Amino acid sequence: MIRVLLADDDRLVRSGLRALLDAEDDLTVVGEAADGREAVDRARALRPDVVLMDVRMPRVDGVAATREIVSWPRRPRVLVLTTFDLDEVVDDALDAGADGFLLKRATPEQLVDGIRTVYAGDALVAPAVTRRLLAVHAARRPADPERLRAAAALTEREVEVLRAMAEGLSNAEIAARVWLSPETVKTHVKAVLGKLGVRDRTQAVVWAYRTGFVGPGTD
Fold it and tell me: 3.40.50.1110, 3.40.50.970, 3.40.50.2300, 3.40.50.1000: which CATH number matches 2-124?
């Protein structure tokens, strides 16, 4: 059973999310929080598997709460929910260590699958609209040529894999594109993360957009 903590300042949103998640056989909501401070306190007390974190909340926002939670030696996974065109701090949330994010207009199926995905230890970058959101926010910031230098250590195949990751492709989809086995792609992904000095594939995608390695209009 995947234990979920809901952090959102809108009570109606929390009620809707609770009804949706509790209807699933493998999900259960163990608590709720109305702001970031309460989210941190409840996460520490309840020890959920996943925190579903809103970005904009009173007192302490979701970015600061995420940063504190992911600093713990043993911590829940954090899946951030954001509103397209409103939350300009979404990439800051990912920088803070969020394991992924979804738009609030995601379908119930996407939300449920997203929770299962981050619980399993995978980072969540899809669906396509989320990739566009990353690109939009990254485009508002200047490219970081200093960090971009790390790309020089990537092999041609690793560059190809990183670009596919930035498109939001899964390992299986990347494997089909570049004619490799999923296991080999997984090895390449691990190498990319190591060379870039990032924690997971979500952070690798943020790195790719933040540095200008990929971006709007990049082939």
Answer: 3.40.50.2300
